[in-house]
Amino acid sequence: MTIALHKPAGFVCTRSDPNATDTIYHLLPPKFARLFNVGRLDTQTEGLLLLTSDGDLAQHLTHPRYKVEKEYEVTLDRRWNPELAKKLLDGIFLDGKRARLARVQPFGPTRLRVVLQQGINRQIRRMFYAIGYEVERLVRTRIGALRLGEMPRGSWRALTKMELETLRQSSSARRISKGGVLPTP
Questions:
Q1: Does domain 69-143 have CATH number 3.40.50.2300?
Q2: CA angle 106, 144, 65 (to 5 degrees)
Q3: What is the CA radius of gyration of the chain?
Q4: Annotated catalytic residue within 22, 42, 56, 90
Q5: Does position 181 have pLDDT exceeding 60, yes or no?
Q6: Hey, which of 65-69, 118-122, 145-149 has the most confident mean pLDDT?
Q7: Can you give the residue ranges of every domain in the chain?
Q8: What's the pLDDT at 179?
Q9: How confident is the model over 102-131, as pLDDT tens digits?
Q10: What architecture is the 1-66+150-164 domain classified under in CATH?
Q11: pLDDT value of residue 79
Q12: Active-site residue 42, yes or no?
């Protein structure tokens, strides 16, 4: 069984935490207590989170060798300087690893869409901080071909067989356009 959850800000991605009152499992019926989350979103990040009992699917979606894209909408504390995109695409060292974004697309003066193919703890927030920005809001909108869409915050739904098959097929076969920067629409 695999479900999609629209995680609201303020919830932690764990079954229990003595320092947190709200976990993602408080949003779900008890019958899903044995599902485990595929990757994590930090407490203040909201958006698409998958929970599954399928270990192979979880491995495929989270291991960097598969390069499954995760897309986020980022709201910054001030106007975006497009000249800084190259730094994010080339990479910034976090925890001794090169963290990079696969794509950066502005869609407003302080809003961007970014795509990751790796996952380092709080990567997007830390990368923007390293170039002088604070992330005010962060929402994961897509994993592979699966989109959050209009799902209300705090709600969940089971994935269809077709969605599961599409997720399993998500891989490095999807290539990023050269340079990774998309123009403002």
A1: no
A2: 105
A3: 16
A4: 42
A5: no
A6: 145-149
A7: 1-66+150-164, 69-143
A8: 42
A9: 999 999 999 999 999 887 889 999 999 999
A10: 2-Layer Sandwich (3.30)
A11: 98
A12: yes
